[in-house]
Structure formats: C-alpha cells, structure tokens
Amino acid sequence: MAKGKDVRGIIILECTNCVRNDVNKDKKSPAGISRYITQKNRQNTPSRLELRKFCPYCLKHTIHGEIKK
Question: Could you give a GO molecular-function term held by this entry (predicted)?
Fold first, then answer.
C-alpha cells in the first residue's frame, strides 16, 4: 500500500558560509543568501540534511544546511 504523503517533505538548503561571515556586506558581491529547494525522505534521513552546493554569492562550493520553514 502507499505510504502517507508526509514521508517526502520539501526542505530549503541555505549557504552556511554567507550567513556566518556576512560575505554580502561588501560592495563587490551582490546582496543575498544562496538557497536551494529540494526534497528528502524523512524516514531515511530524520536528522538535518547538509549538502555541498555552489554558492553564486561566495563564488565557490560551500556547505548548505537545512533551515526551518
């Protein structure tokens, strides 16, 4: 039988480097924080998800962590 719809949830991943270091305060980089939207299976991954993604504001690959909605 099919499982409930709450198993796969939509999550938002946010750049941890931009948030911690306030990289976007200087005039050279555009303002903003890199965010990605994805899905995860809550039964297989109950803890917070962290993926290494490209941040267009830092101009390098950084760790993006799951944030609350």
Answer: structural constituent of ribosome
Architecture of domain 8-21+32-67: Single Sheet (2.20)
> Where do runs of H (alpha helix) occur along 1-69?
16-21
The neighbouring-strand residues paired with 8 are: 41
- pTM value is 0.74
Q: Give the pLDDT of residue 2.
A: 61
Say whether 18 sits in a helix, a strand or coil: helix
Q: How many residues does the structure list for the chain?
A: 69
Phi-psi sector, 23: left (phi>0), alpha (psi -120 to 50), beta: alpha
Per-residue pLDDT reduced to its tens digit, 15-57: 999 877 665 555 555 567 889 999 999 999 999 999 999 999 8
